[in-house]
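can u pls check wat happens w/ protoporphyrin IX containing FE
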Amino acid sequence: MTESRHESLHEAMERIRGTRVWKSIFRREPARTNRTRSLAIFGNLLFHFLPVKVREKSLRVRVSYYLGSISFLLFIVLTVTGILLMFYYHPAVPQAYRDMKDLRFVVTSGLFLRNLHRIAAHLMVIAVFWHMFHVFYRGGYKPPHEFNWVVGVILLMLTLFLSYTGYLLPWDQLSYWAVTVGSNIIKAMPFFGDKIRFLVLGGNTVGENALLRFYVLHVVVLPLIAGVFIAIHFWRVQKDGGLTVPEEPASVEPSLSGKPDSEK
Ligand code: HEM
């Protein structure tokens, strides 16, 4: 675009911004200084937790492969599909198994909904592990990120517990025996093993009480705790100064943006 066309476009925009209609819709002037840009972010309910500035380097795909964001996206998909599944599911014996069959053969798009939830759950476990390995590879566990690493470990545990508690809900042979084996592993723990197993199952066998306990943990307790820890995790990424970006040897040639490497 030539210089004069650019200027006339700019003038036209300024004229539109001066009209009463525009001013009645947009109450504030556009943010043109660093101060007003910061205020626009701080004053916005949706954006206030985002950083006002990010380093250009940390936006590169290979810094994170967006694995943390993909994990979060899958968490959202699981929450939405999980709520929809709750409309069709009763955590009772033997109704739970019948509900699963109904979802498969009777409910419109029921199989699709159930598979979306299951596949997203498998993908989330893979994404969270991958994210952890990638953060480790980049040295993202080192100070000042060490607290967020611990928050991450808690999130990994919560992700695995969510998978495990969801496993019993179809109440089929696979889930029944998987939880029987899993709870026997708990029993093998020294000192309190049998007590913890009793607490988890609400009895000595995998039965009605265990199904209800796993259901409440799966749909209320664990997602709420995970939501709180995810919020802390995101907040800490900002407070710890953004992502860990591996150091590159300083370039001798001036970069295209004209800025020294340390400012990018
Ligand atoms: C529900 C699971 C998780 C979610 C939703 C999540 C989300 C995120 C997001 C969005 C970021 C910033 C962007 C990125 O790196 O992709 C991040 C960074 C980070 N995550 Fe996670 N994460 C999860 C689990 C974990 C786990 C299991 C660990 C490690 C044990 C971990 C440790 C970290 C650390 C240390 C950072 C800062 C990275 C850096 O300094 O470069 N996270 N996470």
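The chain has a mean pLDDT of 91.
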